[in-house]
Structures are given as structure tokens and as C-alpha cells.
Here is the input.
Amino acid sequence: MEQTPKNRKKGYIIAIAIVAIAVMGLVFSFSNTRRIRRSGVRTTATVTNVEIRHVTGGHGQRDRVRHYTTFRYSANGQSIIAVRTSEHTNVNTRPLRRVGEQVEIYYSARNPRNFVFAYGSPNSFGVFGIVVVGVFIVLSLPMLVVFFKFRAKLIKMANQGN
Here is the structure.
């Protein structure tokens, strides 16, 4: 299939839209965490269960391990049970929390099951990594545009020579 300028333009628009949606998702996640930390209710949660499930990779995918960590805390006079999931491609990764461990959290007064860790998340470096990669992708898009324009000129020149 020959790439026309119109098809290339559609490809650029789709790539930019995907990056924009990813960035908006990250911004929403960070703003939600920030909002709960500012206006949420602080309490102590206890880890009541840690379940480990091994996930076999499908065609061309690596095996993974999922940790389901159950937290219990009191909110508005009720006992709340909430589960957090973390997934790792290193199947030897140990759970981030242990049963009986107590952690400081903030929960949303409107939705007590919605909580964030008071002192950052054990996965905060992963989120930071996603942000860095997202910024790198956004900054590299202009270089990709130049590369594909140059490539198209080379192909056009090669086809004229035949």
C-alpha cells in the first residue's frame, strides 16, 4: 500500500491523539490524587490480605505476576474494604505490602473506597517513568515528522531513477 501525503497526515493525527489521551489520563490521575490528599480524610489502613496470581503470557507476551492487596479502614463510622492491584513482569517480585502492615491513607469523603497513600505510592516511580516516556514521545514527534518527510523524498527520488 502506497503512502500518500493524506494517509501520512492521518497517521500523524492518530499518533498525536493517542499521546494526548495518555497525557490527559495521567493528568487526571495526578489531579485526583492531589485532590484527595488536599481535601480527603486521613486515617490508618491495615493490610488484611495479599493474594498473588501468576498470569501466563499469551502469544509473544511475557509471564506476569499480579498482587491483590486488601486494605481495611474506618470511614464515616463504617468498615471499608478496598483492594489495590499491582502487576509486574518480573514474576519473582515480592508483594509491596505484608498482612498486618499499617499504612497512612487519605480517602475521599464522597467515595470512601477511593483512597490514596499519604506518603506517595510504592509504584510512584512507575508513574514518574510513564510521564518521562510521554514527554519524550511528545518531544520526539517533530523529529519523526522530519524523518518521514525526508524518507518520502528519498523513496520518490529512488522511484524516479527507475
In short: The longest strand covers residues 41-55. The chain has a mean pLDDT of 78. The longest helix spans residues 124-161. The domain at 40-118 is CATH 2.40.50 (OB fold (Dihydrolipoamide Acetyltransferase, E2P)).
